[in-house]
């Protein structure tokens, strides 16, 4: 991809915060951080932030990791190793390595950047784009960078327009008619409305643009503040709102759409229900998130596997998939698959049915299994004749059943069940 040299993205770096567990995903993050969780058939959640940066023209990136980072680091090494230092391109993995103090891990999002100031200095950039590594969306950061410079802002905050009734779980902006942030409130009980739209409010996406010299000094000052929690949302952004010029950037203005009337798609897949729904939504005839959009691809590690294979063509033993996504390396053997998303290397055996199932890589589905509204973790072996999705109370004896009626199945749960039956 040839990027014009006058783009601000060529003078910027992306710093991706990818250290969080994502505890609301329960057992899906027992062995991996939330940004490393699988999504969309072959990707990981972090691929969206990284791909947005790459497609925007940013060629200098850093990924800060902390919680159970091996899976995430391995993915970045395998899927994102095409950066070349001789072309002034970098992707650095920055684990919490006690570089500042032998007793300190990353104490917050701002501290994760502060502890790597010397590395960012070595990039010789003018702007830093701070990104959360755990959201699903497509966005051109160049648009936000240009708005930041044109406004002469000290910080520009990426914002979603959300109904006030749904905004209590976000950091929320109060803005004036010019888009200047006059107050930044973390998870308020009564979010403020917009000046010209009191039923809606602006919620932070966890995306911030700074001039590096300005942010560098902010971080140095914050590190010496004994009362700081070392967090962008709680400390850094409110400080700029009080003492500088903080501007809101509307996601609608930089969202990458596959058609002009498509909605501004952004998802926090931080719960099992949200994760399941966002994956199942991809099976729609025309999904709001278009993974087939060639002008803004989602880059990832692509395993070398054969095409998906469907075998058997008999009554009740027909390998078939309807309104579903089936990844490479799968063998659908005499199984009926409907409205499901099947990741790489899954093998499903005869006489089984899968309805609204999200099945992570290299799982095996036994014969005569009947599974609906499920999320199945990587490498799980589903025993023959297992029925899940018909009786929530019975399912809850062995598996995790969510408020939305989705059942999460892991190998540990199945092993425990086998021991007790």
TrEMBL record:
<keyword id="KW-0321">Glycogen metabolism</keyword>
<feature type="binding site">
    <location>
        <position position="171"/>
    </location>
    <ligand>
        <name>alpha-D-glucose 1-phosphate</name>
    </ligand>
</feature>
<dbReference type="GO" id="GO:0005978">
    <property type="term" value="P:glycogen biosynthetic process"/>
</dbReference>
<feature type="site" description="Could play a key role in the communication between the regulatory and the substrate sites">
    <location>
        <position position="105"/>
    </location>
</feature>
<protein>
    <recommendedName>
        <fullName>Glucose-1-phosphate adenylyltransferase</fullName>
        <ecNumber>2.7.7.27</ecNumber>
    </recommendedName>
</protein>
<dbReference type="InterPro" id="IPR029044">
    <property type="entry name" value="Nucleotide-diphossugar_trans"/>
</dbReference>
<keyword id="KW-0547">Nucleotide-binding</keyword>
<keyword id="KW-0119">Carbohydrate metabolism</keyword>
<feature type="domain" description="Glucose-1-phosphate adenylyltransferase/Bifunctional protein GlmU-like C-terminal hexapeptide">
    <location>
        <begin position="306"/>
        <end position="409"/>
    </location>
</feature>
<keyword id="KW-0808">Transferase</keyword>
<feature type="site" description="Could play a key role in the communication between the regulatory and the substrate sites">
    <location>
        <position position="66"/>
    </location>
</feature>
<feature type="binding site">
    <location>
        <position position="106"/>
    </location>
    <ligand>
        <name>alpha-D-glucose 1-phosphate</name>
    </ligand>
</feature>
<comment type="pathway">
    <text>Glycan biosynthesis; glycogen biosynthesis.</text>
</comment>
<dbReference type="Pfam" id="PF24894">
    <property type="entry name" value="Hexapep_GlmU"/>
</dbReference>
<dbReference type="InterPro" id="IPR005836">
    <property type="entry name" value="ADP_Glu_pyroP_CS"/>
</dbReference>
<keyword id="KW-0548">Nucleotidyltransferase</keyword>
<feature type="binding site">
    <location>
        <begin position="186"/>
        <end position="187"/>
    </location>
    <ligand>
        <name>alpha-D-glucose 1-phosphate</name>
    </ligand>
</feature>
<keyword id="KW-0320">Glycogen biosynthesis</keyword>
<dbReference type="GO" id="GO:0005524">
    <property type="term" value="F:ATP binding"/>
</dbReference>
<dbReference type="InterPro" id="IPR056818">
    <property type="entry name" value="GlmU/GlgC-like_hexapep"/>
</dbReference>
<comment type="subunit">
    <text>Homotetramer.</text>
</comment>
<comment type="similarity">
    <text>Belongs to the bacterial/plant glucose-1-phosphate adenylyltransferase family.</text>
</comment>
<dbReference type="InterPro" id="IPR023049">
    <property type="entry name" value="GlgC_bac"/>
</dbReference>
<dbReference type="Pfam" id="PF00483">
    <property type="entry name" value="NTP_transferase"/>
</dbReference>
<dbReference type="GO" id="GO:0008878">
    <property type="term" value="F:glucose-1-phosphate adenylyltransferase activity"/>
</dbReference>
<feature type="domain" description="Nucleotidyl transferase">
    <location>
        <begin position="14"/>
        <end position="283"/>
    </location>
</feature>
<keyword id="KW-0067">ATP-binding</keyword>
<dbReference type="InterPro" id="IPR005835">
    <property type="entry name" value="NTP_transferase_dom"/>
</dbReference>
<comment type="function">
    <text>Involved in the biosynthesis of ADP-glucose, a building block required for the elongation reactions to produce glycogen. Catalyzes the reaction between ATP and alpha-D-glucose 1-phosphate (G1P) to produce pyrophosphate and ADP-Glc.</text>
</comment>
<dbReference type="InterPro" id="IPR011831">
    <property type="entry name" value="ADP-Glc_PPase"/>
</dbReference>
<dbReference type="InterPro" id="IPR011004">
    <property type="entry name" value="Trimer_LpxA-like_sf"/>
</dbReference>
<feature type="binding site">
    <location>
        <position position="204"/>
    </location>
    <ligand>
        <name>alpha-D-glucose 1-phosphate</name>
    </ligand>
</feature>
